[in-house]
Structure formats: structure tokens, C-alpha cells
Automatic annotation (TrEMBL):
Signal peptide: none annotated. This is glycine dehydrogenase (aminomethyl-transferring). It comes from Alistipes inops. The glycine cleavage system is composed of four proteins: P, T, L and H. The keyword Oxidoreductase applies. The glycine cleavage system catalyzes the degradation of glycine. The P protein binds the alpha-amino group of glycine through its pyridoxal phosphate cofactor; CO(2) is released and the remaining methylamine moiety is then transferred to the lipoamide cofactor of the H protein. Keywords: Oxidoreductase, Pyridoxal phosphate. CDD domains: GDC-P. Pfam families: GcvP2_C, GDC-P. The lineage of its organism: Bacteria, Pseudomonadati, Bacteroidota, Bacteroidia, Bacteroidales. It catalyses: N(6)-[(R)-lipoyl]-L-lysyl-[glycine-cleavage complex H protein] + glycine + H(+) = N(6)-[(R)-S(8)-aminomethyldihydrolipoyl]-L-lysyl-[glycine-cleavage complex H protein] + CO2. Residues 775-891 form the Glycine dehydrogenase C-terminal domain. Residues 8-436, 471-733 form the Glycine cleavage system P-protein N-terminal domain. Its cofactor is pyridoxal 5'-phosphate.
């Protein structure tokens, strides 16, 4: 083994341990095992078209710095939804760059996620307070997609009479960001929603509208009183959504105050870098009456077994993966990590600190506005917060601005738009004024006075109520206290920094430090997504390379990096298929086949794409019922759009008849979407293109090493065959996508671009040989665990040769009957052993789906299996079904140290195995009462 190779650092099993594992599996070599797992008919005949050898870590670090240096840092006043920020170092260092925060999983296991849950509750509280609403979620993806979610939420909230009367119109004010409008167009089309774009001030409601969307402040910077407009909308039966600048709401009257029903936007200004467009933290807040219609995750307050307050994700039956084809959203991955950062930003600054920041932004804007008027320029807005729109010859202004290393936004040839931010200085104000003076042929003033107390906003438009009055926002304003608060929350969570997270279908692999380091480089963080291409050569080179590499790995011709999550990748792939059929005059093809075993995101995404969903049965072995699939493909041939197939299957098995399924769809005139959630079992050995699919999506936060970040952010690119390349998503501001590309699916032209160096580095350092070896070892590890556990747990599904793919399903269906123990009790008991549980009861009820990934060592896998077997022995020894070590799990340190009246010992509760004492993790709370939290919904901060 050569540790010059990145693969040897990334893969956890040594060559010595591998020999022992192969002996347990019962094969003589890795090749022999792979031959038993993957059907020969779909094995690649030649290596993927990438260099065989990868870079070393040192070489990649140097290479990525060279790429970063090709990005030219120009002072951005572009605005349009992205602004330079001053990310507090205490948050950057202790959250964004901290593996304990970025490697944790979505907080479904609430008892070992209390730190992240509190951070996200802070975010919810912040957005609810600033928007003046009653309830909020713990982040969406960005402002444009949040606006689209609000549109569909208002559509779903139509009254029976409105539905009966075909009320399908949405009013959108014309002074809205173009990228937000684009996404509204994309998401409205499958539902037959008619968008009426007009001026809010003159529009007359007709009664055909179910909703209205306005931007606050508007795209051109105007602060407008929407109270009368909102009242008129409500009178006509329409609901109102405000797309908000969250920082402006520190000073302005809240949307809730003037009558909005829903508020959405981005929290990017709250300490998040621009990062060439993402990730940001989208948000949505609304009235409590609409809580069951609100998409995304909601953090709620409940109690645990001991009566302590505890946090959890509330009202989970609303979530798309549970509602499946009945979903009204396909939100899965959110933006948990960056939402936590934004929440910490608000905590660190508090209400007074945010007022100072907002006032600083506004006063510098006012200084520029006054100076430009003195120079004779027409400034559009009478009331503004941070954005000025000026009548001027754009080309002349741009030349002068670029000479001073300044970027503005140019909506047309005679308009210049600029937005100021928290890092704007008086010297920069003078430079901006000098640009316009030069463009006007006038002498610039020697200095421009900035009055930090000036408010150029009518009093009636200003906020009068308190903001952020929860105690958490008034406690941690020194760096010492903030550092300790972050650390305190960090200790309440399990992450990959603690132990193996064996979640099936989620691929919780190593997120190598060298892959993460570029995310802190200023040449990547400080770039605006609408900056001229001449300033973003490093990003664009990396994007072109990554698109090429992902296309090569998947066997396709093209790639789009715009989708910001796996579920959005599913949606985008389906929309490209839809566009393909429409281009051929076959827009009537809207029926999609989806196996019953598919991820819940599949039918939810298909519903969002306006598809008619036909469910295909599973056979007795858990595979897709081939005959049922063929029959339904033939029966729906006249209207078949395609099929969504996960491969290997959700059961972790390579189904041998996959090509028969693909052929059945193609023969019926449809196209095949392959769900790439399980690509970690394919890379280098087979691929969707070779199998015959037409499009696939990829979860870069699974197969390609991006961290899960406590629930996001993610990246969900799609790769497509040649006939779909021209339909890849476009963008109205930055040219990208195909010649006939669908309209944008997200605000940023390249999605969460700041995250792309992670996957770029993963591929470049592994090379083709390393990528194949990663897949082989993922399959080896899963089969080792399945074989090692077969005397204790039955593996629910296997392939034709008795092997699993990269994950396995362990059968615990007898535990309730034999021991009175639920599978969720097993999951909670694993917390006492220091482990996150595998995936519970999916895709089969009362099972555990385990995926070890290639990153774990034999020692760690052995520890996890020892824990599982130990818990089984505890179940077998149960005598008291009401009070035992399993059903009471997890056990907190406070309980173990306090009064004790259980029939088992404290040592059995806390240290059931000898090695646990060397690295004990104590859950912060005990078993949480989920029902209590839903019945008594509280989703803002309270004292703990």
C-alpha cells in the first residue's frame, strides 16, 4: 500500500484486513466477488474515459489553488440576491470548517442531534421574527425555489370553489429578480398555472387568481407599501407571498404586518459567502393555519422520557418522501449547515448588532444616492434600503467601474443597478461616486460624507416592533461565549467525527479534509454568480472539467450542475424528458412508471413534474416484477413518458433483468430516468449510459464525497444522453444549458457552485483506477458485514448468487413478537453504544438497511456488528417488558449519575461493552415523545 495514493487514505480497509474479510465472505479475490454481484451483461468492457492515476493530496491542493487564482476578485455591488458578507471567524472556523458539523446526518435520530436541532431552531426563530409570521421551516434551498414552493403551496390551499371554477392564475409583480421569475415559470408549467406578470400598483384582481407574489424590496430597490394590494388580493380570494431581503426586514415593516400570507427568501446575507451562487439558505415562514401545507422540515419542541425539553423534526407526515405521489413538494435535502451558520450569525450579533449592520448598509446607500442626484443622475427609488437603480449609459459606466475593479448590474443599455452591503466602506462609496462622475464627464467630489444615522425611508414603512427577543439572541456576543456555545451544541451530536454512520441509501462516506479546504479560499467564496466570465475563469474551467468527468463516469454525453439537491435532480431530469417529448409533438406523454420500492422522492418529484404515476409491483424476492413492469409499459405505451428506476435497487441488489426493463420502456416510446442514489455501487464497473438509460441524477453528497451537513446542502446534477443535451436547464442572466434548455430550476446558473471543488477533488485524486476500487470496496464491505452477521440476522434480499450490492437489509421483523421490542428501540439503543442507527424500516418495515461505505475500517465495522449482536442478546434477556435497557434507551449521563431504580445496572445502560469506555458518547436527551411535540407544536426558541 502506498500512502502517496489518495485512494489508500480514503479507503478504510488495509490489504491485510481485506484478506481476512474475503475469507469470511468465501471468495478468493475481489474480482470473484464482483463477478457474483454485478451481472456480466452490464459490466463495462473498458475503463471509463478518465486518467487512470489520480493526483496526490499535495498535487491537488496546488492545482486547486492555481484554479482559484484564475478567478479575479472584483468588488461586487451586483446584488440581485447575492451580497458580500463578513462571516464571523468564530462561525467559519468552528462550524463551516468543523467536521463535527459538516459530516453529521439529517436529524431524524433526534436524541443524538440536539445540537444541530437547536441551531436550526435558532434559524427558524430568526426568520419567523424578522418576517412577522407564526411558523417557519428550518430552511429550503434558495430564494427562487422557495418562491416556487410558495406558489405551489398557495395553489394547494385553493378553496373547493376555486378548484371547481378552475382558478389557476398567479399574479407576479414585474419588478422581481429574473432568476426568481424563471424558476416560477419552470415549476408552474406542469400544473397548468397561468402566470400573469404585471404592475402591482395598477393590477385589478379578477377572481381567477389563487395567489400573488411580490418582491420586498423590489428588484430595482423600491420599498413599497403592499398593504392595500394584499387587502385587495384577499378580497378576491388570493393569498400573497413576499419574496424578502431578510436583512432589510431588520429596519422595514414585516410582511406579516402588512398582510402577506407567506414570506420566502434567502438568508445569504446572514454570514454566508457568495460562492459563485451557493449554497445559500432559503427560508419560508407563514401562518400557523397553513402548517400542514408548508414544505420542508420544521423543528419543534417536545419532551423526552424523563420530562426534559427536547427538540425533534415535527409533523413529519407532511414530508414528501412519506406522502410520495400525493406530495405537494419534493423537498428532501435542505440547507441545514448554512442555515445553522445564519442562525449563529443572528445569535452572535443579536438584535442590536443586526440593526447596526442594516443601518450601516442603508446609510452608505443613502450617501451614494445623494451624491448621484447632485451629479444630475435620476435615481429610481424614493424609498430604498440597499439598492439603487440609476439611469445612465451602461457601457460607459461599466468601463469606468471595471477600471476601478468594481462590478455593477446592468439590466439594460440605459440602466445601472447597484447594491451595498455590510462590508461597504466610505472609501468605496467615494469610488462608486467617482465612477458616475467620470461617466458624466464631471469632476468627482473630493469626499462623500456618510451619515451613519441617516434613514432615507418614510416612517410609515419602518419597523416598530421588536425583533429577535428570544434570550438566545442576547447571550453570546463575545467570541469566547460564542465559541463555547457552538462547542456545547457540537457535543450533543453524533457525526462521522465520532463513529461510523451506517445509513443505507445515504452513503455516509469520508469527506476528506483536502477536498473541503478549497471552500475557504477567498478566490472561491467571494465570487458573484453574475460576475463577467472574464473574472471567473477558474470556476468555469473546473465546472467544464467536472461536467465532462461526471458525464464520462455515467456514460452520458452532457451534464448540468444546476440542481441543488438529489430530489431537484430527479425533477430536473424528468423535466428534460418532458421537454424532449414536447419537442417531438408528444407532450401528451405524461405517464411514468415507478417501482413500489422506489425512494419516496421519486414519486414526489414525478408529481411535481405533472406526471401520471403508475406503480409497478415487486416480486417475492423484492426485485421489480418484470412481467408487471412490461405489462404496464405496454398498456400505457400511447402516453408513456418513461420510467424511474433505482439501480442497484433500493434493496441493494443488482437486478439481472435491468436491460429488459429499459428495452420495455424504449419499445413503448418512453425514456428511462435512472435514480443515481446508489451510484456508489456502479462507478467504474458499470454505468447508466451503458445499461441503456437516458438520464440519471447524482447525489454528490453521497457517491461523490460531499458532506451531508446535517441535512444539506447538497448538489444533484443530471447527466443525459446526446438526445437530451439540448434540453439541459438554462438561465436568464448567465447563458448556460442547452440550445432548447428548460427554464432555470434554481436561482444560480451553476447551483451550489462553492461545493463543487469537493467532488472535483474526489475525482481528480482517485482517477479511474481509484474510482473503480472505491466501488469494489464498498461492495466488499457490505458483503463482509452481511456474511459476518448471517448467524444472527437474516439479510432480507440478495441477488441471484446470494450476494448484496453496497448495502444490505437486516430483518428484525420478529423482534416485536419475540421480545416486545420495536426496531426504533434498537436504533435508540445503538446510541448508548456510540452509533447512529442504520436506515429504519425502509424500504421494508421493521428492518435496518446498512451501508458501511468504502471509508470504514474493518475494526469499526466489527465494533458496529458487535454492538448489534450485543443488543440482540439484551433483547433475548428481557424479562420486564416495561422497564429494560433497550426500551428505555438512550440513557443520558444525568440519568446514569442520578437516582437509579431500574432492574439493570448503570454499567449495562452506559457501558455495555468494554471498548465503549474509551470513547463514550452520552446522548443529551432520552427517548423523545414525538406525539407530544406534534400535539403541542412550538417551533421557536425557548429556554432549556
Amino acid at each position: 500500500m502506498s500512502f502517496d495514493k489518495f485512494a489508500d487514505r480514503h479507503i478504510g480497509v488495509s490489504e491485510t484486513d481485506l484478506k481476512e474479510m474475503l475469507a469470511v465472505i468465501g471468495v478468493s479475490s475481489v474480482d470473484e466477488l464482483i463477478g457474483q454481484v454485478i451481472p456480466a451483461s452490464i459490466r463495462l468492457r473498458k475503463p471509463i474515459g478518465l486518467p487512470a492515476e489520480g493526483m496526490t493530496e499535495y498535487e491537488f491542493a496546488a492545482h486547486v489553488r492555481e484554479l482559484a487564482a484564475k478567478n479575479r476578485q472584483v468588488r461586487s455591488f451586483i446584488g440581485m440576491g447575492w451580497y458580500p458578507t463578513a462571516t464571523p471567524a468564530v462561525i467559519m472556523r468552528n462550524v463551516f470548517e468543523n467536521a463535527a458539523w459538516y459530516t453529521s446526518y439529517t436529524p431524524y435520530q433526534a436524541e443524538i442531534s440536539q445540537g444541530r436541532l437547536e441551531a436550526l431552531l435558532n434559524f427558524q426563530t430568526m426568520t419567523i421574527s424578522l418576517t412577522g409570521m407564526e411558523i417557519g421551516n428550518c430552511s429550503l434551498l434558495d430564494d427562487a425555489s422557495a418562491a416556487a414552493e410558495a406558489m405551489l403551496m398557495m395553489f394547494a390551499l385553493r378553496s373547493r370553489d376555486q378548484v371547481k371554477n378552475g382558478c389557476n392564475q398567479l399574479f407576479v409583480d414585474d419588478d422581481i429578480f429574473p432568476q426568481v421569475f424563471d424558476v416560477l415559470v419552470t415549476r408552474s408549467e406542469p400544473f397548468g398555472i397561468e402566470i400573469i406578470r404585471d404592475n402591482y400598483d395598477t393590477y385589478k384582481f379578477t377572481g381567477k387568481e389563487f395567489g400573488a407574489i411580490v418582491q420586498y424590496p423590489s428588484a430595482s430597490g423600491r420599498i413599497r407599501d403592499y398593504a392595500a394590494f394584499a387587502a385587495a388580493a384577499h378580497e378576491a380570494g388570493a393569498k400573497v407571498t413576499a419574496v424578502c431581503d431578510l436583512m432589510s426586514l431588520v429596519l422595514l415593516a414585516s410582511p406579516g404586518q402588512w398582510g402577506a400570507d407567506i414570506a420566502v427568501g434567502s438568508a445569504q446575507r446572514f454570514g454566508l459567502p457568495m460562492g459563485f451562487g451557493g449554497p445559500t439558505a432559503g427560508f419560508m415562514t407563514t401562518k400557523e393555519a397553513y402548517k400542514r401545507n408548508m414544505p420542508g422540515r420544521i423543528i419543534g419542541v417536545s419532551v423526552d422520557r424523563l420530562g426534559n425539553k427536547a427538540l425533534r423534526m415535527a409533523l413529519q407526515t407532511r414530508e414528501q418522501h412519506i406522502k410520495r405521489e400525493k406530495a405537494t413538494s419534493n423537498i428532501c435535502t435542505a440547507s441545514a449547515l448554512v442555515a445553522s451558520m445564519s442562525g449563529f450569525y443572528a445569535v452572535y450579533h443579536g438584535a442590536e448588532g443586526l440593526r447596526r449592520i442594516a443601518q450601516h448598509i442603508h446609510s452608505h446607500t443613502a450617501a451614494v444616492a445623494d451624491a448621484l442626484r447632485e451629479l444630475g443622475y435620476e435615481v429610481a427609488a424614493g424609498n430604498y434600503f440597499d439598492t439603487l437603480q440609476v439611469k445612465a449609459e451602461a457601457a460607459v459606466v461599466q468601463d469606468s467601474a471595471l477600471a476601478r475593479n468594481i462590478n455593477f448590474f446592468y439590466p439594460d443599455e440605459s440602466t445601472v443597478r447597484m447594491s451595498f452591503d455590510e462590508v461597504t466602506t466610505a472609501d468605496e462609496v467615494a469610488q462608486v461616486v467617482a465612477v458616475f462622475a467620470e461617466a458624466a464627464g464631471k469632476k468627482a467630489p473630493k469626499s462623500v460624507k456618510v451619515d451613519e444615522g441617516k434613514v432615507a425611508i418614510d416612517g410609515a414603512l419602518l419597523r416598530t416592533d421588536k425583533i429577535l427577543d428570544a434570550p438566545v439572541f442576547d447571550k453570546y456576543h463575545s467570541e469566547t461565549e460564542m465559541m463555547r456555545y457552538i462547542k456545547r451544541l457540537e457535543r450533543r451530536d453524533i457525526s462521522l467525527a465520532d463513529s461510523m454512520i451506517p445509513l443505507g441509501s445515504c452513503t455516509m462516506k469520508l469527506n476528506a479534509a483536502v477536498e473541503m479546504m478549497p471552500l475557504s479560499l477567498a478566490e472561491f467564496t467571494n465570487i458573484h454568480p453574475f460576475a463577467p466570465a472574464s473574472q471567473t475563469e477558474g470556476y468555469l474551467e473546473m465546472i467544464r472539467e467536472l461536467e465532462h468527468d461526471l458525464a464520462a463516469i455515467t456514460g452520458f454525453a452532457g451534464c448540468s450542475l444546476q440542481p441543488e439537491s438529489g430530489a431537484s435532480g430527479e425533477y430536473t431530469g424528468l423535466m428534460t424528458i418532458r421537454a424532449y417529448h414536447q419537442s417531438r409533438g408528444q407532450g401528451y406523454r405524461t405517464t411514468i412508471l415507478i417501482p413500489a420500492s422506489a425512494h419516496g422522492t421519486n414519486p414526489a418529484s414525478a408529481a411535481m413534474a405533472g406526471m401520471k404515476i403508475v406503480i409497478v409491483n415487486s416480486d417475492e424476492h423484492g426485485n421489480i416484477d418484470v412481467e408487471d413492469f412490461k405489462a404496464k409499459a405496454a398498456a400505457n405505451a400511447a402516453e408513456l413518458c418513461g420510467a424511474m428506476i433505482t439501480y442497484p435497487s433500493t434493496h441493494g441488489v443488482f437486478e439481472s433483468k435491468i436491460r429488459e426493463l429499459v428495452d420495455a420502456v424504449h419499445d413503448a416510446g418512453g425514456l428511462v430516468f435512472m435514480d443515481g442514489a446508489n451510484m456508489n455501487a456502479q462507478v467504474g464497473l458499470t454505468n447508466p449510459g451503458y445499461i441503456g438509460a437516458d438520464v440519471c441524477h447524482l447525489n454528490l453528497h453521497k457517491t461523490f464525497a460531499m458532506p451531508h451537513g446535517g441535512g444539506g446542502p447538497g448538489v444533484g446534477p443530471i447527466c443525459v444522453a446526446e438526445h437530451l443535451v439540448k434540453f439541459l436547464p438554462s438561465h436568464s442572466v448567465v447563458p448556460t444549458g442547452g440550445e432548447e434548455g428548460i427554464t432555470a430550476v434554481f436561482a444560480s446558473p451553476y447551483g451550489n457552485a462553492l461545493l463543487l471543488p469537493i467532488t472535483y477533488g474526489y475525482i481528480k485524486m482517485l482517477g479511474a483506477d481509484g474510482l473503480r476500487r472505491v466501488t469494489e470496496m464498498a461492495i466488499v464491505n457490505a458483503n463482509y458485514m452481511a456474511k459476518a452477521l448471517e448467524g444472527e440476522f437474516r439479510t432480507y434480499y440478495t441477488g441471484e448468487n446470494g450476494r448484496v450490492g453496497h448495502e444490505m437489509i437486516l430483518d428484525l421483523q420478529n423482534f416485536r413478537k419475540d421480545y416486545g421490542v420495536e426496531v426504533a428501540d434498537i436504533a435508540r439503543r445503538l446510541m448508548d453504544y456510540g452509533f447512529h442507527a442504520p436506515t429504519l424500516s425502509f424500504p421494508v418495515h421493521d428492518t435496518l438497511m446498512v451501508e458501511p461505505t468504502e471509508s470504514e475500517s474493518k475494526e469499526e465495522m466489527d465494533r458496529f456488528m458487535e454492538a448489534l449482536v450485543s443488543i440482540k442478546r439484551e433483547c433475548e434477556a428481557i424479562e420486564n417488558h416495561e422497564d429494560n435497557v433497550v426500551v428505555n434507551a438512550p440513557h443520558t449521563a444525568l440519568e446514569v449519575a442520578g437516582e437509579w431504580n431500574h432492574p439493570y445496572t448503570r454499567m449495562q445502560a452506559a457501558y455495555p461493552l468494554e471498548w465503549i469506555s474509551r470513547a463514550k458518547f452520552f446522548p443529551y436527551v432520552s427517548k423523545i415523545d414525538n406525539g407530544y411535540g406534534d400535539r403541542n407544536l412550538v417551533c421557536t426558541c425557548c429556554e432549556f
